[in-house]
């Protein structure tokens, strides 16, 4: 079909614009979702088709591989009974950390000019602090270096840590014989003394829930026993004697003290 128009030079013929070819379109009004553990997560997916009134809807989760969530009008085994669909929007109930990840909503409209559209939604399940594991030895010798360990591997976002001695928080300040790493959960002593004896515990916290603490553990800083002290002193003296003899032999050889007749 052509439309005629007149310009300053006379008649000209221009082709008219034909019908716009449309295709299925898929989007998400909330591509990033954060919810607390054991609550519901709604993964929004909206679509529009050109002609197809009954498109196929699928949800997939991307991990090490790609697994189906909703396929052939049915939820797969791990989601059956704890998820439902409204249109193309997926709602999962009582989510856990295992549900965190990237999900893809795919809509196939076989009657449309371009028949496949998709949208991606990232789900992050927030987990409150758990009771951390704490490593505190029962005893250590005076003067030894020492590292106490604390870890909560389950909380999301990752926990930060605080150490307590006899229920008093240990702060990393100047002129102390210890250092605290709040992100790694370590408490390090350069050289422990008798005053470091006490009850130690660690607390993990994040922005999701109340802090959790491990059970306090008693640390004793003890002197070396007398027989151990004597043994160490004797070993040190023996090594010193051996070293002295070696030096003497070397010097003697250089000076030619030891000559055969």
Automatic annotation (TrEMBL):
All copies of domain Ig-like, residue ranges: 19-122, 129-207
Q: Does the keyword Transmembrane helix apply?
A: yes
State the Pfam families in the record: Ig_3 (PF13927), V-set (PF07686)
Q: What are the annotated GO cellular component locations?
A: cell surface; plasma membrane; protein complex involved in cell adhesion; tight junction
Q: Which SMART domains match?
A: IG, IGc2, IGv
- What keywords does the record list, in alphabetical order? Membrane, Transmembrane, Transmembrane helix
The record lists the membrane-crossing segments as 228-252
The Gene Ontology biological process terms listed for this entry are: leukocyte cell-cell adhesion
What SUPFAM superfamilies is this protein classified in?
A: Immunoglobulin (SSF48726)
Lineage: superkingdom: Eukaryota
This chain belongs to the protein called Junctional adhesion molecule 2b
């Amino acid at each position: 079909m052509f439309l005629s128009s007149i310009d300053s030079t006379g008649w000209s013929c221009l082709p008219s614009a034909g019908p716009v070819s449309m295709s299925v379109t898929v989007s998400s009004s909330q591509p990033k979702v954060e919810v607390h553990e054991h609550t519901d997560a709604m993964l929004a997916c909206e679509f529009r088709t050109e002609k197809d009134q009954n498109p196929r809807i699928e949800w997939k989760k991307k991990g090490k591989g790609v697994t189906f969530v909703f396929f052939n009008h049915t939820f797969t085994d791990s989601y059956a009974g704890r998820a439902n669909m409204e249109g193309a929007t997926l709602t999962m109930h009582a989510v856990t950390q295992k549900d965190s990840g990237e999900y893809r909503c795919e809509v196939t409209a076989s009657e449309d000019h371009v028949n496949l559209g998709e949208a991606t939604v990232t789900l992050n399940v927030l987990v409150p602090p758990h009771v951390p594991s704490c490593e505190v030895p029962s005893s250590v010798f005076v003067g030894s270096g020492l590292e106490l360990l604390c870890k909560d591997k389950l909380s999301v976002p990752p926990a930060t840590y605080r150490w307590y001695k006899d229920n008093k928080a240990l702060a990393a300040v100047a002129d102390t014989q210890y250092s605290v790493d709040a992100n790694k959960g370590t408490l390090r002593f350069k050289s422990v003394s008798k005053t470091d004896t006490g009850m130690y515990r660690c607390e993990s916290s994040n922005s999701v829930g109340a802090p959790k603490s491990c059970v306090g553990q008693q640390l004793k800083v003890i002197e070396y026993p007398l027989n151990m002290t004597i043994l160490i002193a004797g070993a040190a003296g023996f090594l010193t004697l051996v070293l002295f003899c070696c030096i003497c032999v070397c010097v003697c050889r250089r000076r030619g003290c030891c000559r055969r007749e």
